[in-house]
Amino acid sequence: MTALTLNLDPIAHLTDEQFYQLCQANQDVRFERTAEGHLIVMPPTGWDTGERNLDIEGQLWLWNRQAKLGKAFNSSTGFILANGAARSPDAAWVERDRIEAINPDPEKFLPLAPDFVVELRSVTVSLRPLQQKMQEYSENGVCLGWLIDPKERKVEIYRPGYAVEVLESPTSLSGEDVLPGFTLDLEAILK
C-alpha cells in the first residue's frame, strides 16, 4: 500500500492545533502534513517492515536508556518542523536539554525537529518521496538522518551542509557525535 496525499488548500489550511485535533479524532489513521499543508494518509506497514522498525527502535531505546542523553521516539510520535510540516519518522531522538528548554505539552506533537531520525523504506514505498522527506528533515534542523533501504541493501546518510553519503551493504551505522557511542547493528534490518 502506498500513502495517499490530500490537498486541502482550496478549502482550508490546518493550523498545528487543528491538525492535532484531526489526528486525535482519527486515532486509527496515521497522518503527516507537508509544509504546503497537504495531508498524507500513511497506511500500516507489512509485518516484515514492522519487525525491522522495532529492531531499529529497540536498539535506539536501549542505547538511550544507558546513555541518558535525551529521549528516543517511535514512529507514532509527531514533530512539527520549522517549515510547518508535521512528520513522524520511523525512529527519532532529541537531546534532553532541547526538550526541557521549550517545556512542551506532553500530549501534543513536539514542536521541534529531532536531532536524529531514521526512515525505513518498505517494499511498497517509492524511494524519491523518502529522499525528499530526509532532505526536509536536514533543512529543518535534523543533525543526522538515516534512510535505510533493505530492498537495495543501501543506507543514505543525511547531514546538514553535506552531500548525501550512500553506503552499500553496511553491517552497522555510527551515531557519530549526535548519538555518542550508539552503533546500529544492521544484520537483521538488511537481511
Task: Give a brief description.
This protein is of the alpha+beta class.
Summarize the structure in words:
There is one protein chain. This protein is an alpha+beta fold. It has helices spanning 16-25, 47-67, 96-102, 127-139; strands spanning 4-6, 30-33, 39-42, 70-74, 79-80, 86-87, 91-95, 116-120, 144-149, 154-158, 165-168, 172-174, 183-185. The strands form four sheets. Strands 4-7-8-9-10-11 form a six-stranded mixed β-sheet, with helices on both faces. Strands 1-3-2 form a three-stranded antiparallel β-sheet, with no helix packed on it. A hairpin with an 8-residue loop joins β12 (172-174) and β13. The longest helix has 21 residues, at 47-67.
Based on the model shown, name its key terms.
4 helices; alpha+beta; 191 residues; six-stranded mixed beta sheet; three-stranded antiparallel beta sheet
From N to C, what is the helix and strand string? EHEEHEEEEHEHEEEEE
The neighbouring-strand order within the major sheet is 4-7-8-9-10-11
Number of DSSP E strands:
13
Specify the biggest β-sheet: 6 strands, mixed
Total helical segments: 4
Q: Measured on Cα atoms, how large is the radius of gyration?
A: 16 Å
| Average pLDDT level | 93
Q: What is the global morphology?
A: globular
pLDDT < 50 runs, ≥5 residues: none
Question: What proportion of the residues is helical, as a percent range?
Answer: 25-40%
| Helix/strand class | alpha+beta
Percentage of β-strand residues: 25-35%
Distance from first to last alpha carbon: 22 Å
